[in-house]
């Protein structure tokens, strides 16, 4: 089949609803989420979990899964408090230094495959059979492609990457590695809406075909909480972020604080989509040209430059003027371990209301040799092709 324009519009409306859920920052609806978990287990043919544990962030969720699997609590005090709050099978142990040993009664076995992977695969096979390969592909584009890029690529993927690095950096060897490995077992809760939207759109398109069969529990959890872990005996659910700051193209971004924060204090700092270490984030307000020049990591240096301002850095770091003509001035500055910083300084042809003319700085390829070549490049032209008749 091939979708009509009206059907594509209806599918996009379903995607909008799921996109809003994926980016929601309100507290979890715990009762509704737990009901969804129990339903997901039943739909997978599994007994309901004996216990459901609630934690304040995916970081705490990954650590809890590691502790429930028998990893020894090590490191910061919050690890021991977390261990005790789990109250494993009623055998709560003391947090005293004398009692800081392995977690009692380990029993974590992930059932992610049964709860999430297999139902998804079965539903996909049904949907492709009902809609046909072309219809299913068209529906996926209409109801999931946009939100996948905005959520999985720019939010969930960045969070997963930062989490893995933080767990290894913050926790002693054994526990850090165990917690990081538990990220592979995570079910993405609200972020799973980016694929659930396609199945819900398919179900609305072909009512009665059972295209959401087996996914109702997963959908309920995704609507009401953050990342979660499905174990054979216990389920771990986590809160949604309490803050989510993004730029105009949907990338995690905030200069004056964390771009993503969770109720238990875990936070992710990011600048234009790139997660940055907390130590660097604390430095951003007081950066100097000397500090930027001393940074050996090229990616982190670029974050510093964007926050500090390329034009300011060129002035303070001693850039040299390579070329000047009627289009502007070409500036050059070598950067250790990175390509040179080459920018064209241009003056806006249209004066401001007060009669002044605004100055703009345009970063151009490091091979640029004249100001005209640099300005032309910003328009996708060569220097010989760039001869504007009127400038506005």
TrEMBL record:
Pfam families: DUF6745. Residues 180-392 form the DUF6745 domain. InterPro entries: DUF6745. This is DUF6745 domain-containing protein.
């Amino acid at each position: 089949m091939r979708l009509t324009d009206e059907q594509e519009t209806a599918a996009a409306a379903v995607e909008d609803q799921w996109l809003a859920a994926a980016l929601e920052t309100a507290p979890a609806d715990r009762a509704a989420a737990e009901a969804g978990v129990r339903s997901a287990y039943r739909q997978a043919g599994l007994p309901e979990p004996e216990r459901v544990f609630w934690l304040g962030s995916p970081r705490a969720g990954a650590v809890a899964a590691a502790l429930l699997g028998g990893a020894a609590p090590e490191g910061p005090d919050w690890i021991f408090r977390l261990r005790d709050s789990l109250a494993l099978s009623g055998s709560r142990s003391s947090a005293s230094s004398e009692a800081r040993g392995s977690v009692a009664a380990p029993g974590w076995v992930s059932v992610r495959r049964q709860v999430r992977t297999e139902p998804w695969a079965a539903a996909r096979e049904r949907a492709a059979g009902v809609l046909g390969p072309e219809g299913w592909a068209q529906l996926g584009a209409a109801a999931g492609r946009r939100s996948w890029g905005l959520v999985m690529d720019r939010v969930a993927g960045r969070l997963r990457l930062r989490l893995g690095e933080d767990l290894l950096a913050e926790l002693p060897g054994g526990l850090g590695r165990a917690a990081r490995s538990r990220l592979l077992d995570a079910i993405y809760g609200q972020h799973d809406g980016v694929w659930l939207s396609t199945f819900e759109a398919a179900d609305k398109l072909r009512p009665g075909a059972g295209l959401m069969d087996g996914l109702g529990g997963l959908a309920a959890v995704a609507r009401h909480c953050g990342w979660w872990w499905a174990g054979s005996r216990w389920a771990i659910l986590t809160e949604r972020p309490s803050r989510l700051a993004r730029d105009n193209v949907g990338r995690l971004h905030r200069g004056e604080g964390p771009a993503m924060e969770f109720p238990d204090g875990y936070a992710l700092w990011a600048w234009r989509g790139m997660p940055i270490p907390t130590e660097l984030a604390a430095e951003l307000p007081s950066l100097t040209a000397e500090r930027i020049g001393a940074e050996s990591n090229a990616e982190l240096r670029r974050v510093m430059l964007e926050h500090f301002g390329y034009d300011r850095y060129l002035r303070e770091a001693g850039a040299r003027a390579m070329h000047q003509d009627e289009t502007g001035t070409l500036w050059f500055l070598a950067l250790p371990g990175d390509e040179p910083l080459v920018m064209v300084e241009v003056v806006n042809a249209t004066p401001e209301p007060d009669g002044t003319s605004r100055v703009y700085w345009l970063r151009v390829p490091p091979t640029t040799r004249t100001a005209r070549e640099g300005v032309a490049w910003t328009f996708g032209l060569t220097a010989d092709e760039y001869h504007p008749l009127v400038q506005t």
